[in-house]
Amino acid sequence: MSKILPKPKKRYFSTPVSSTDYEIFRLNGDECRNNARTEFLLGDYRRSFLDYTNAIKCYKEGLDRLGTDSNVKGKIREKIKREYLVMKAERRKAALYDATEQTPFIIRGLLRKIKGRHVLISFILSLFFSVLELTGNVVGNGISSHWSGIGFFLLGVFLFYFFVRGKILVNKTFN
Q: Which CATH number is correct for 22-99, 1.20.58, 1.10.20, 1.10.3470, 2.60.120?
């Protein structure tokens, strides 16, 4: 005997309010944004992305129903731009987390956490340690400094591989 389960409510990809009042859309958009922030902190990036999408839809609907007050419209447009940028970041993070779900733990951590600034810092440190004239021979006696520079360069290449690999996985998900 099989049990028929009720369908879950469709929560996303539709504006959950139908009204002509701007304030109701704004409040609903703020609620969706707060839900998205909570879900982001809990690590549910896919749901966070969908909540930000819903918040943007609510703000846009409210903007359409707003009168001619240009001061309020400008603030709403700025809010939409901010939420859109956050939503794009959430989408990329959700795609990366979905793409790296089956990889081993250490590699998954490197793919998810390495940023471009880590690679850049490593290459800058390798430059400072390998070329003593840049620091006025203050860094080291030459031999150990060169080895440190080589080590930082190899670390930069290692981090660069994981940085680029993560970007490729995200872009592959979107195509």
A: 1.20.58
